[in-house]
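A quick aside before the break. I want you to see a complete sequence-to-structure record at least once, exactly as it would be stored in a machine-readable document. Don't worry about memorizing anything.
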Amino acid sequence: MPRPAAHLPGHRSPRTANAVPVVVSRPSGVAVAALLAALAGAAPLRAQPPRPDPVGQLARARLMLAVGNRDGEALWWRAVASDDPAIAPELRADLRLLATEAELRELDALAGAARADWLHRFWTRRAAASLEREGDRLGEHYRRLAWATKYYGQPTDARGLAFDDRGVVYVRHGAPTEVRGPALLPADDASREGELVVVPNMAWRYARADGDLVLFFRGCAERDPFDGRPRLARSCTPASARYELVESPDDLLVHATGLRGAVPDAARDLPRRATGIAPDLALRGRARAGGAGGGQLLLPTSGEATGRDGQSEAQLAARTLNPGTEGSLGALALRDRWLGRQDVRRAMRFDSDEPRHVRPLEGRLRLVRLGRDGDRALLHLAFAVDAARLDPIARSGALYYPVRMRAVLLDSAGAPVVQVDTARLWRADDRLADGTVLLGTFTFSAPPGTWRWRAALERDDTTGLATALAPLRVPPVSGAFTLSDLALGPASAPRVVLPETGDTVHLSGAGAVNGGEPLALQALLTGATPGEPLEVELTFTREGGVFGGGRALEVRGTERARGEAHGIVRLLDLARLKAGRYEVALAVTRGDGTRVVAATPVEVRTR
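That is the input. The structure line, written in tokens, reads:
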């Protein structure tokens, strides 16, 4: 049936001015020409802009962020700032492994700009704790989700997740530092004599400044109907193996009737009955009950390595031979399971916020509160770093050794209070000799309060060292009678000038001093009354308990406060101290008996 051109989308109604009625009966060249001529005198056709689709924008942003395209950040923020109610369940699915249930309920109730503000605070806290920018942490999350789905995927389970426990851990903590397993072991089934099979056990280790996180995964497990122990599901294949996180190596599959797999020659020397997880990772240097052979002691394989409980190989072996002692196999197994339970809790309930470095940087970091800037305290990050790991940059006939320092102070809610990102270069005409230690100090200010702090010293994004999150109390800088942290360093250490007193402070982050070199010890006392007498006591106490420990050096004296801010300076000769670790304590007592103390550890070395 012929259609009037006025009914075409975008064309004006016949009642409007300049309308030209045209009838098209067939798509002939003449008809098309007549239609174009009629439309030429009418209002121009305008393409209607497509209606924004926030869910589609979010889907595209996910893909872009997952492959490292930073243009996806702006698209992601546009999508989450919309009022479309369909965005809420999408965000809940994306964030469920990072946010608590209370946080998710709070997010569900928001929309538009309020939701975007909430998400900004959410990502800012996580980025600050890991010393990253907000966009980097956002992109990292979607890269982890994509990896977990691709490599640890499975049919959606009762939790609504499309990957197994390995994927959960990966999304929360990123790539592990070390992976062991699955293992190829000789089969002990008579019908499969000489064949190697896959035992789907895995161990992941995350290197952490506050102690490694060691996790064990068991794949394709089902319960034996006779003894209830986990065994391999007969229908499982390597491609379909679903791994679950377990508390202890005792929960791993211990048998050699595993899945069929490729057979490398090196695997033929493996033990016949084992979990396939090497003892040095196994496990935290602890004992466990083995397979049919009875008690099997899993210990580090080289050196006098110690487990997380600090026991050496010799100590563990001695305790294992005495089952009635606290360190017997049973007691150690219980302790190992308790520690494993804590690791599982950390892995499955919290996400990581520690900076990650592929190559460790040999060095030390020390935060010293010393001095003030107005109503803020001065904080000094003193560091010592091995020059050999800095890989110098050659420019204009000289070598430059670079180092980057990042630091953050967080409040109780995890929001950043102070953020530092700076760098320093050392110039040298020739490459520095092996063993050369570079010393430096970065100074910044902080308001009074109770915070948590973290810092990272880096050569680049892949090489560095980071501290664990640690508490920090910054007292008021005026009024109260307070003593700063102790600054220790030889005359060759970097110098810092205190604005209140003009004193030059030698501040070393090395944590160790040579006994034959004079050591400068300095601190700042505030809140004193000018001219009041102060009793100053300095002690060196050697670690070692009843065997060689005790007070090794004591210096007492009286001086008068030079002002409200009073600098305490001592130049010490440590030549008569034995090599070892000491605690250095400085105590200051005023006339009314008020006493303040500051202490720090130091290692004394002999030349």
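Two observations worth writing down. The longest helix spans residues 329-349. Residues 3-40 form one domain. We'll return to this after the break.
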